[in-house]
UniProtKB/TrEMBL annotation:
It comes from Paenibacillus septentrionalis. Residues 162-368 form the Histidine kinase domain. This is histidine kinase. Pfam families: HATPase_c, HisKA, PAS. Residues 26-71 form the PAS domain.
Length: 370
């Protein structure tokens, strides 16, 4: 009987070892990095991909804290205390979590962009730890950047095709007036005024094209979006009041910090408010700026009670050189969308009802890799 029990124990241990080996082979065959931690945040398993991506082996975690080895500093270069770490928050609360943009640190002192998920480990329905699966996003971000550059070049090409037509018209006018003055030998004030207007139009088109296409100096900083909005409203109020329009702000909480290029976000808000002021054709015009924060994003709505925009026109908005204004170039909204999407990884949505008004909604992430 003792021999049978002994053989059964050996067989059971052998089966456990075999299953553990198979589990490890499965883990090591996965391209994503995977590690598991118990409720004391001790690493209990760690696959080959995680070892390759970080340079750390499982043995190196026996005397070192996981967080302090691979997750001690955020993308902004700020130290992350362990009690602020989302992984440990999920571990302590038994929750699932997905983080889209973060960084992990390598053993050689370098960092790499990651996205990761945290899932609770359950044993007989009891929370016993968490499993973290992470992916190196370096190649994806590089690919995204190449696509972004291609899109910008494509847009600039589209602008260049349109600009040839847009500039040709005023140049033709200028040449005609120069010939008239040359033949008559006189300079008429009327001619000078028209020529000056044509030069201004050319200058406006070129300036907006340069703003859109030139490389941006990426001087990102942490800013309070509420302060930026206050400054823009102060700047735009005199222009609005001349048309009998009132600008107001509805901000749910202060401060609301965001990583951005401050002057570019100001330019976006100025463009949207200026468009709203020029669109309103009633003596009781109103423009309201609504600001709210949710899920690490900030939403900014510019709402007006103007005439609204038809569905046909709405489809064309943002197309270079398409404008509903008599002297518009259509580049203002192109520049605005470029700043929001390409430089701040945000989105711009437009909703409008004829006879009621228009709402431009800017959604900006509070943090992003750039």
């Amino acid at each position: 009987m003792i021999t049978n029990n002994s053989n059964q124990n050996v067989d059971s241990q052998s089966e456990i070892n075999r299953l553990n080996h198979i589990n490890q082979l499965i883990l090591d065959s996965v391209a994503e990095g995977i590690y598991g931690i118990d409720l004391n945040a001790k690493v209990i398993f760690w696959n080959k991909a995680a070892e390759r991506l970080t340079g750390f082996t499982l043995n190196e975690f026996e005397k070192n804290n996981l967080h302090e080895l691979i997750h001690h500093t955020n993308p902004q270069g700020e130290h992350v205390p362990i009690h602020h770490c989302p992984v440990y928050y999920a571990l302590n609360n038994g929750e699932s979590l997905f983080i889209k943009d973060d960084i992990f640190w390598n053993k050689d002192g370098s960092s790499f962009p990651v996205e990761y998920t945290v899932k609770p480990m359950l044993e007989d329905g009891k929370h016993v730890g968490s499993v973290i699966t992470f992916r190196d996003m370096t190649e994806k971000l590089q690919t995204d950047q190449l696509i972004l550059e291609w899109e910008k070049l494509s847009a600039v090409g589209q602008l260049a095709a349109g600009i040839a037509h847009e500039i040709r018209n005023p140049i033709t006018s200028l040449k005609g007036f120069l010939k008239l003055m040359h033949r008559s030998g006189r300079v008429k004030d009327e001619y000078v005024s028209i020529m000056d207007s044509e030069f201004e139009r050319i200058e406006t088109i070129i300036q907006e094209l340069l703003t859109f296409s030139k490389p941006t100096v990426t001087q990102y900083s942490q800013e309070d979006i509420c302060e930026i909005i206050d400054q823009v409203i102060t700047l735009m109020e005199p222009h609005a009041l001349l048309k009998g329009t009132v600008i107001s702000a509805n901000i749910t909480s202060r401060p609301l910090k965001i990583r951005c290029i401050k002057n570019q976000i100001k330019q976006v808000l100025i463009n949207l408010i200026k468009n709203a002021i020029e669109a309103i054709d009633r003596p009781d015009g109103r423009i309201q700026i609504n600001v709210h924060s949710r899920s690490n994003e900030i939403g900014i709505e510019v709402v007006d009670n103007g005439p609204g925009i038809s569905n046909e026109v709405l489809k064309e908005l943002g197309t270079p050189f398409y404008s509903t204004k008599e002297k518009g170039t259509g580049l203002g909204l192109v520049v605005t969308k470029n700043i929001i999407r390409n430089n701040h990884q945000g989105t711009l949505h437009i909703e409008s009802r004829e006879g009621i008004g228009t709402t431009f909604t800017v959604i900006l992430p509070q943090r992003f890799n750039k």
